[in-house]
């Protein structure tokens, strides 16, 4: 580990110690659920850890608020997508109603996929969600995240590979339980 890596970790650690409680209190006003608040606050600092070359921050609370707000928007988009998907399934299945067990299985599959996507690093996950949920193009994603289009392409390849592995694991698990 280089000295720059150490100083970066120390700087983020100092920010965490100084502002984590404040950020949780601020997020609680928007989210209400303490588990969501803690997840978003922790993910905010993970993003800072993953960002290369953290320069001295003049307004750390403004930066933390901006990152956390983006994470909240991603959470809301995922929840909206899940809700839309479940509503669509419910509408599609009015003629052939699904059993509660089928709906539970579907919800569990969506939650499993969400956990799988949470294993991706912040920018890779954000790239995937901006593409799939918001329908942004690679140039738009690159501009939104401040990365190159090549990085967007690599991140999408990485997230697609993870989704394929997830899908294959789900198929194997269904075959085992059948």
UniProtKB/TrEMBL annotation:
Pfam families attached to this UniProt entry: Sigma70_r2 (PF04542), Sigma70_r4_2 (PF08281)
Keywords per UniProt: Sigma factor, Transcription, Transcription regulation
NCBIfam families associated with the record: sigma70-ECF
Family the UniProt entry places it in: Belongs to the sigma-70 factor family. ECF subfamily.
The keyword Transcription is assigned to this record: yes
Keyword check for Transcription: yes
Name of the protein: Sigma-70 family RNA polymerase sigma factor
RNA polymerase sigma-70 region domain segment(s): 16-80
Domain RNA polymerase sigma factor 70 region 4 type: 111-159
